[in-house]
Amino acid sequence: MSVITDILQLLLTANLWQVALVSAVLLLLPALGGVISERSGVVNIAMEGMMLTGAFFAVWADLIWHSPWIAVLVAMVAGGLMALIHAVVSIRFRADQIVSGIAINIFAAGLTVFLVRAIYGLQDVGHVVPAEALPNWDVPVLSAIPFIGQVVFQQNVVVYIALILLVVVEIVLFRTRLGLRIRAVGEHPQAADTAGLNVYLIRYGAVITSGLLSGLAGAFLAIGVSNTFVPNMTDGRGYIALAAMIFGKWTPRGAFVACIIFGLGEAIYANNSTIHVSQYLLSMLPYLITLVVLAGLVGRSTPPAADGIPYAAGSE
To answer: φ, ψ for residue 256 (rounded to 5)?
Structure first.
């Protein structure tokens, strides 16, 4: 009972929810990219590798140019290039998209370790000083609101960008002609092709966009949260983002709800000093939540009809 009481008391603190929102945004950005990619018909489990690549290049660029915004741009380009590889293999050569994604994740893990050793040797990669990291910003007036002000309006600038992107992606996918085209390509590419849409171009754009967003998430993790790079520091977040996308039924708002749930699990672990239970058990919490959610809800989620199916022009 004491553990349950500790958790309930923790849930009433603004600090917990502030950390939970940060953790959720680290998942939300790649999850939004995954929604866009899979709505176009391309399965993307390579978000882990794209995010990890973005994290390394964000720190590398920030240590060279001493500008977080240049670092973010470099990280997004790095994530986009990894996504381009996935797009070429999956769309141009019609390879198995799951295998391609796994290969990119393995490649990214090996590439970043190689680059760390090649550039920095056995030395530490180095820490980004706070003045050169992604800044926090307290929104005037709104940040003074009790509880909500601390949770929502005393955050890193990337948190605000992610929340804006959430609204933008939701509107674009379901309220614009471009979104209709993306969804048409993901549901029935043959019909979309017959209607004059360039299936390949739309899918390339969607996959690369997912890479850009995953690269942004990697930059946030590296120079907004950790202020350094450690091999494999994404720690499975790309996979959890994939689970959030599935839990959210391939919609931005649904993915956001899932990210909050998973982010809350990470935040509870981050505040484990206030809970009288093994920290090792708490470290499993985000992954246990993922398994429970997927086991209970995946069967009720229906992906786009052509998701994961390579398209060849003129095929039936």
So the answer is: -65, -45
Distances (CA, A) of 4 to 7, 11, 116, 229: 5, 11, 43, 35
Tell me, yes or no, if the pTM score tops 0.85.
Answer: yes
Nearest to 188 by CA among 202, 204, 176: 202
Phi, psi of 15 (to 5 degrees): -60, -40
Alpha carbon separation from 21 to 135, 258, 266 (Å, rounded): 16, 12, 10
Query: Can you tell me whether residue 137 is helix, strand or coil?
Result: strand
Query: Which letter does DSSP use for residue 139 in this model?
Result: P
The token pair at 121 is: 């040797």
Task: Return the structure tokens found at 267.
Answer: 């935040």
Share of the chain above pLDDT 90, in %: 76
Which residues does residue 164 pair with via DSSP β-bridges, in sequence order?
A: none
Q: Is the dihedral of CA 116, 69, 179, 295 positive or negative?
A: positive
Q: Which domains does the chain have, with CATH numbers?
A: 2-300 (1.10.3470)
pLDDT (tens digit per residue) in 159-202:
999 999 999 999 999 999 999 999 999 999 999 999 999 999 99
Phi and psi at 147, nearest 5°, equal 65, -70
Six-digit token string for 137: 């910003």
Crossing angle of helices 252-270 and 237-247, in 10° steps, is 140
Q: Report CA torsion sign: 167, 168, 169, 171.
A: positive
- CB count, 10 Å around CB of 298? 12
